[in-house]
Specification:
This protein has 246 residues and is of the alpha/beta class. It folds into 2 domains: 130 residues, Rossmann fold; 105 residues, Rossmann fold (3-Layer(aba) Sandwich). Helices cover 43% and strands 13% of the residues. It has 9 helices and 8 strands. Strand 5, helix 5 and strand 6 form a beta-alpha-beta unit. Helix 1 crosses helix 9 and helix 4 crosses helix 9. Pfam families: Asp_Glu_race. This is Aspartate/glutamate racemase family protein. Belongs to the HyuE racemase family. InterPro entries: Asp/Glu/hydantoin_racemase, Hydantoin_racemase-like, Iso_Racemase_Enz_sf.
Length: 246
């Protein structure tokens, strides 16, 4: 079983950390391949950044199916950029880490709060919670005064701020679990959980383990209607070489 983790930004330090994290939790027969696209934003903190990241995500899906014999994919950015488009490009399972984390959190707690990065991403996160149907379970979305790259450049300071907000979520929101709202926080999950004493869900690990289950169950992306293959000949320019593999 080969699971490809696509870090939609181009910061290699994050990709390397995701590789180490996934290698540590994947079962012995699962091969993990963590990659970054050749081009795109160094961090994703806006709708514009998300849009810039999607072409690289789709190219990595194409390579995974046509060149790398990948069995399932993880999109390791909490905005799940290009998730639905990716599901149209392959019949292999494709999971976004926000979607995976919300489902896991709902299975281990009655309610949860999301702790993410800067205030600019609040609306983006609210949109995800609503889109995936977790409005009732999500108590609050809490932002922190950090940028995504702070998690790579000054991780101790950044994680201290994340922990402080997690404690507020526990005590003020009465959240019974925390969802970490950034893939850059993934490698610090156990440290954060030890500090706050309630379950902390990292979407990257959640998505990897769900991918293992989906592959075992031989479940593929439905192509009956919504996520059907792209129509050939519709694209020009940078995406013209991404063709249907049906």
């Amino acid at each position: 079983m080969k699971i490809k983790i696509i870090n939609p930004n181009t910061t290699q330090a994050f990709t390397d950390a995701l590789q180490r994290l996934a290698d540590g939790v994947a079962r012995p027969d699962a091969e993990i391949l963590a990659v970054s696209p050749a081009s795109g934003p160094s961090a994703i903190e806006s709708f514009y950044d998300e849009a810039l990241a999607v072409p690289g995500v789709l190219e990595e899906i194409r390579k995974g199916d046509q060149e790398q014999d990948v069995d399932a994919y993880v999109l390791a950015c909490f905005g799940d950029p290009g998730l639905y488009a990716a599901r149209e490009l392959t019949d292999k399972p494709v999971l976004g880490i926000a979607e995976a984390a919300f489902h896991m959190a709902a299975m281990v707690s009655a309610c949860f709060s999301v702790v993410t990065t800067s205030p600019r991403v609040r609306f983006m996160t609210e949109h995800l919670v609503s889109r995936y149907g977790f409005d009732e379970q999500c108590k609050k979305i809490r932002t922190t005064p950090i940028q995504v790259l702070d998690l790579a450049n000054s991780p101790d300071t950044a994680i201290a701020k994340v922990i402080a907000e997690c404690l507020k979520a526990r005590d003020e929101d009465k959240a019974e679990a925390i969802v970490l709202g950034c893939a850059g926080m993934s490698q610090y999950r156990t440290r954060i959980e030890a500090e706050i004493g309630i379950p902390v869900i990292d979407g990257t690990v959640a998505a990897v383990k769900l991918c293992e289950a989906l592959v075992d169950m031989q479940l593929s992306t439905s192509k009956v209607l919504t996520f059907n293959w792209p129509k050939p000949g519709m694209a020009r320019g940078m995406q013209a070489d991404i063709k249907s593999i049906a």
